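debug: dumping io for the single-chain case to check the tokenizer round-trip. Nothing else runs in this session.
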Amino acid sequence: MAGTVFFSVSMSLDGFIAPESPDELMGRQWVKLQSWVFPQRFFRENLHLGTGGEQGRDNDILRETFDRTGATVMGRRMFDAGEPAWPDEAPFHTPVFVVTHGRRDPWERPGGTTFHFVTDGIDAALDAARTAAGNRDVRIAGGARTILQYLNAGLIDEFSIALSPVLFGTGIRLFDGIDDSTVELHQLGAETSPRVTHLRYAVRRR
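debug: decoded output
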């Protein structure tokens, strides 16, 4: 049975998930936005940053998201920002399908991550990811424009937002361009921690 297609992102209180400039995708804003992630034990283990770390509900959510994911889809902008920043053992440990216009041979990394470059659209990338994931779920990793394409196409089943207590003022908003005439949300849950608020929604077509 096919798994769920979902996304899971951190977002500022004013709705941004990334800076506008690709040169700043791993910069100051991103560090502020993801500051709840860095102390978590699972994050440290996954990136081989050493032992220790926090083990509360934030940590559990990171681990649960990782464990459910059998394949990942991302846009080329996210890949281009991550390629020089990820360690040799990239943190996905799944097949990753990059939606792009440029052809490139698969890029295999240690630890189970292989990047595949899909040039014939979001549906083809998702079909390949579903096959690779088997009974596990497919995560649409980002960025915002890629997530929005999948949302407006009715291909997202559910999503979670880690709402961080930061304000950006500018950047890329997650839901800019959403087709609200076709997308309907149903809240599945909300949890708070000292660092962030976790919101979960199911997506239905109107």
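debug: round-trip ok. The two ends are 25 Å apart (CA to CA).
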